[in-house]
Amino acid sequence: MNSHEKNVLNEKLETCSLQPLTGFNRNGDCRISAADRGRHGVCAQVTRAFLEFTRRRGNDLYTPDRLGGFPGLKPGDRWCLCEDRWQEAFDHGVAPPVIMAATHARVLDRIPLARIETHALATPTDG
């Protein structure tokens, strides 16, 4: 895996979340690998509206799955989302804010940058 993968800003891909630990490979990054058929490349800060929407679609992100290592999410958590689910939420007016620095560049194969920018979460720099 390339340690210098890029984000949608064409910069080094930043970590999305270590608490809860996210990413297809549970390494904190929204990297898209060949094994990741869902393309979990969108780093988003989930909202109650999004969590309710995705639960209605059959993907309950609220409920922990201890055996699967899934902690369950609450509004405000950052999580690597499937591009198609984020796009579907966008189409229904409930797309959560995106952390652009932690969103994989390959997301742009399916979602236009301008659309992501309309949902960009302003993040303060750690200086």
Short structural description:
This is DUF2237 domain-containing protein. InterPro entries: DUF2237. The chain is of the alpha+beta class and 127 residues long.
Q: What do you see in this structure?
A:
This protein is an alpha+beta fold and 127 residues long. The protein has one domain: Protein of unknown function DUF2237 (Phenylalanyl-tRNA Synthetase, Chain B, domain 1), CATH 3.30.56.110. Helix content is 18%, strand content 6%. The chain contains 3 helices and 2 strands. The chain has a two-stranded antiparallel sheet. The longest helix is centred in the middle third of the chain and has 9 residues. 34% of the residues are buried.
Primary descriptors:
single chain; 127 residues; alpha+beta; Phenylalanyl-tRNA Synthetase, Chain B, domain 1; two-stranded antiparallel sheet; 2 strands; 18% helix; 6% strand; globular; DUF2237 domain-containing protein
